[in-house]
């Protein structure tokens, strides 16, 4: 089943391809952090709000244990690396870069560094971010939702088969436009584990139709194409 020869991209040296060492994958992430058009939206205390390539906003927290809100399990992820080498302009050999935990003296030093101007998102995007996060705070911490999907009268949720009331939180599939309870969708998504979620009906890779149950604030609607273009053809 796991035949190397069946790979769609033949690789003449597959027998000798070395496993990526931790150091290699770390430098690989540094390259990605530099090449991807990540931008800093805001910085407040130990928190850095980073605009990712898809418009999602991730929160990097420089505390004793450095963390990021993105789903990437690699530590440090490219957003953390971005904060270190782009926003704070640390040299590549700075010892803080590869540390999972920071000592109080290191934290003080990092947080006292100025923000590199060229790491910042455009003023328009930063304004948008402040508006949207202020709305989110006013709305009890929930990310404001653009046009809410409303189920049709009497429509049943394809997961639990219950009728969806007008006051219930629902999401819709961007591909087939079917509406489903947000709660039912999130349960299904969790059951997909590491695989990316698909629509329960049409099996298309899940793209929300207007309403997104994801926890990230997303600014893609305000980012013009020029801002989103990546420098290289990297994945
Ligand atoms: Zn991250
Ligand atoms: Zn349901
Ligand atoms: Zn669908």
TrEMBL record:
Keywords: Metal-binding, Zinc, Zinc-finger. Residues 58-88 form the SWIM-type domain. Signal peptide: none annotated. The keyword Kinase does not apply. InterPro entries: Znf_RING, Znf_RING/FYVE/PHD, Znf_SWIM, Zswim2. GO terms for molecular function: ubiquitin protein ligase activity; zinc ion binding. The keyword DNA damage does not apply. Residues 157-203 form the RING-type domain. It comes from the Eukaryota. This is Mitogen-activated protein kinase kinase kinase 1. It comes from Salvia splendens.
